[in-house]
Every structure is written in structure tokens, then in C-alpha cells.
Q: What sequence folds into this?
């Protein structure tokens, strides 16, 4: 099967979304290992160390595209003229990508288009695919369906994105979302037919390298938090909670970078939290090593799709203390592989941390369960779901063609 992936933001040196790896790359590598041919359309040159198995094609640019762009605008004015008004640069990028997809479909005989994510870049390709009869699978994360201006989060904050989402969704063959709440939003809020939506959780790879389940005899409970230092990740709730706990009971390392770094450092200093360390982003191998030696991961996000770092922690046998949001509820079972707390309730988080710190065997007993949860969310299971969807859409598209077309 020939699959065109749209994930135009791949550009980091070690192919990660900064703190964790770019899981889209892992999915492509997994599909290739199953005998599929995968092509990645990106607007960046492949970074150093990029998998040589994945063929990459850059988005076409330059003056030579102007005639094609003009034809698209005049053919679909109801889409592109409002788009150019609402967001000139983003719409111009969409036009370039449409032209690129049309060219790739012709050259590579593409059978399936899989877009990761709708924003940025995935809100296009539907004209090209529709004109050529190619099914489009759209995998969305939480960002595409949210509108939270108070924490600077969610693509739906943009009127331009709302326009493109509305224009594109009828042409998408099938939608997937990583958790049950987001799958429900697609149906209830955005009017996608329920038969065109499926919950496909993220999957963790490298399960053969699971952490050894051991009991820690450290005096302090060693905790780690990983993520961008932004309001969305909600690190301040951890710092507020630690004010109520003796510093000799717990230690915390926060790994990440972002514009709230100074605020968090000021909080640490003002509240006398000598047991808290801020660390910059780490290369993946070092990050996983640091995570594997922690007693637990704290993940206090206000909103998530399905956090890969939580899956990775579970795969390493590290229980999670996580905010009680839909993405975490789909992964964490209370007192089985971790603990949930109300996302902004620092007193409840303090109670959970102190309970774990006072009963270390309690959290060690959860480690085997963490591994079981990770195995139930393996990358192989996710790839199985993708292949099932691909085949179903190809069969459905074939059956919808006139008999004469199918015979040719």
C-alpha cells in the first residue's frame, strides 16, 4: 500500500517534538516494516539522523506555482477567497500543499493520504485527494478541536482554522482521535457521522526495553515532570502542592523549556523549594534514562490528547500521578497504575504525594500494572487499527466507483 503522510513540522535534530520523540515518525517506520511504502510531505529538509527508510518530498514553492494556485482559487472561490482574507499566509501554504499533493499523487500512485495533524498543514489536501479519488484519514490531537484562549491553546481559537476545518471535514474519509472525549467531540460538536470516527489511542514502542520492576529504598520519593513550561502543562500546581510537604520526603525534577521558566524559578525561590530542580530539555536516550529511575511521573496538564510521556513512563514501570482529565482517565486507573487528582487542586495533589511518600511499597506494587497498561497501548496495536481503517476505506472507495471505473 502506498501512503502519503502529511506532518509538515518535522524539523528537529533528533526527530522529536522537543521533549519526547515525534511519534509520527515511529508510526511511519512501523508501517514500512509491515511492507507498506510511506512518503512524508514536509516543508522542511529532513533533519540529521532522519530514517533513510522514509521517502520525503518537500512542499513545492516558487513562482512556477502561481498558475496552479490561480486555477485553484478561481475553481474554489468559496474556500480560498475567505481563507485568504482570514489568514493570507496560512492559506497560501495550503494552496502550495494542494499543488504538491496533486503532483505527488500523479508521480507516486498514492493510495491513501494520512494527515497528522489538521493544524498546521493537514487542513489541506482534500481538494487534491477528492479530485483523484484518494481516501483521506485525518488523525487529530486535542489541539485541533479545542478553543482555550485563556491558556493560549487550541487551533479553534483561529477563525482561519475554523474556516478550513469546516471546508475540509466533508472530504475526509475517516477521522481518528486519541481519547474517547475527543472522538465524542467530533460527533457531537463538529457533526461528523459516528461511523466516520474512531478512537485510536497512541501507542508506545520499544516494549522489549521495559524497565525492571524493582523496589526503591531511597529516603526521598523521587518525582519527575516532563513537558513544555507553559500554562497548559500546569506545573505550578505541583509547586503549590509541595509547599505543604516536608522537603526531606520528596524531590522533584521538572524537565522542559518555555516562557514560564522564569515564573517557575521565582516560585521555587520564593517558596523555599530546595528539593525542586529545573532541567532543560534532554536528548531522548538521556530523558528515558532519567525517567526510568524516577519513583513516579507527575503529569498535571489541563488538556491533552493522549500524552506519549505518560505511555513511556508506564512502559518503564513508572506509576503516574496525573490530573483528572479525559486523556489521563483513558490511561490511568486509580490505585492500579497511578493516581488521579483534580487538575487545579493543589491540596488534593499534596495529599496524594504525601500518601505515596509515606508508603513507598504502595507505589512499587503498581509497577507491574504499569507495564500491563503499556502493553495494552503498544504501537503495534495502533498500527493494526490503521491498517484496518486503510483497507476499509480503500474497499469502500472501490465499491462506490461506477462498475466501468472499477474494471479499469
A:
Amino acid at each position: 500500500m502506498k501512503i502519503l503522510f502529511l506532518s509538515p513540522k518535522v524539523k528537529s535534530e533528533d526527530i522529536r517534538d522537543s521533549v519526547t520523540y515525534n511519534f509520527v515518525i515511529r508510526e511511519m517506520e512501523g508501517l514500512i516494516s509491515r511492507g507498506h511504502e510511506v512518503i512524508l510531505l514536509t516543508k522542511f529538509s529532513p533533519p540529521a539522523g532522519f530514517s533513510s527508510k522514509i521517502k520525503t518530498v518537500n512542499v513545492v514553492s516558487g513562482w512556477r506555482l502561481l498558475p496552479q494556485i490561480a486555477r485553484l482559487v478561481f475553481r474554489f472561490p468559496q474556500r480560498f477567497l475567505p481563507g485568504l482574507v482570514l489568514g493570507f499566509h496560512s492559506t497560501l501554504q495550503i494552496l502550495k500543499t494542494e499543488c504538491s499533493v496533486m503532483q505527488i499523487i500523479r508521480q507516486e500512485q498514492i493510495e491513501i493520504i494520512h494527515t497528522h495533524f489538521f493544524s498546521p498543514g493537514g487542513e489541506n489536501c482534500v481538494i487534491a485527494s477528492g479530485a483523484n479519488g484518494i481516501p483521506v484519514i485525518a488523525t487529530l490531537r486535542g489541539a485541533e478541536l479545542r478553543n482555550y484562549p485563556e491558556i493560549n491553546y487550541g487551533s479553534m481559537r483561529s477563525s482561519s482554522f475554523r474556516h478550513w476545518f469546516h471546508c475540509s471535514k466533508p472530504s475526509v474519509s475517516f477521522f481518528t482521535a486519541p481519547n474517547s472525549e475527543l472522538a465524542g467531540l467530533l460527533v457531537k460538536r463538529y457533526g461528523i457521522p459516528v461511523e466516520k470516527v474512531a478512537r485510536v489511542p497512541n501507542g508506545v514502542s520499544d516494549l522489549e526495553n521495559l524497565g525492571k520492576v524493582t523496589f526503591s529504598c531511597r529516603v526521598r520519593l523521587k518525582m519527575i515532570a516532563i513537558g513544555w513550561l507553559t500554562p497548559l502543562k500546569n506545573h505550578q500546581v505541583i509547586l503549590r502542592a509541595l509547599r505543604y510537604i516536608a522537603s526531606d520526603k520528596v524531590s522533584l525534577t521538572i524537565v522542559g523549556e518555555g516562557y514560564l521558566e522564569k515564573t517557575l524559578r521565582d516560585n521555587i525561590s520564593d517558596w523555599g523549594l530546595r528539593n525542586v530542580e529545573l532541567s532543560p530539555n534532554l536528548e531522548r536516550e538521556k530523558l528515558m534514562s532519567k525517567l526510568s529511575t524516577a519513583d513516579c511521573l507527575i503529569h498535571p496538564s489541563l488538556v491533552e490528547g493522549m500524552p506519549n510521556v505518560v505511555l513511556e513512563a508506564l512502559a518503564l514501570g513508572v506509576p503516574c500521578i496525573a490530573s483528572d482529565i479525559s486523556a489521563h482517565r483513558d490511561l490511568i486507573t486509580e490505585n492500579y497504575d497511578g493516581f488521579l487528582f483534580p487538575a487545579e487542586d493543589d491540596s488534593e495533589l499534596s495529599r496524594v504525594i504525601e500518601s505515596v511518600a509515606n508508603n513507598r511499597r504502595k507505589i512499587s506494587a503498581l509497577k507491574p500494572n504499569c507495564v500491563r497498561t503499556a502493553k495494552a497501548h503498544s504501537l503495534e496495536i495502533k498500527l493494526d487499527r490503521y491498517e484496518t481503517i486503510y483497507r476499509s476505506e480503500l474497499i469502500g472507495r472501490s465499491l462506490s466507483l461506477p462498475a466501468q471505473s472499477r474494471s479499469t
Residues 12-21, 402-408 have pLDDT under 50 and may be disordered.
